[in-house]
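Entry:
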Amino acid sequence: MTARPGRIALYVLLGVLGAFVAAAGALVQAGLFPGGLLLALAGCVALFYGGAKATGSRAGAAVPAAVWVVSVILLSTSRPEGDFLFAAGVGPYIYLLGGALSAVVCATVPHVPSSGGNRT
């Protein structure tokens, strides 16, 4: 079975959005604690759950989650110049663990089809 070009494009778009959400969350989570942290985590959940709903499969949540994890790991390493995005503190750890937990939950929750208009 071959994948359709539209489906491949959707997964690529979800991967790019995963990188964007990781970068935006890294910048927002420290601002106005705890509001920025909650906003960053809400963005993660929205992307992962929305990806699963848009594709109708668990891969729709797994693809952006995998890109998100890799992006966050790359953003959390310090550079030789001493620059970093995540400071030592409870907020960044909650963002990292909360984002990873939301990815796992959104990828493993069974998707129940809606019963729509089949009522008799």
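The chain is about 70% helix and 0% strand.
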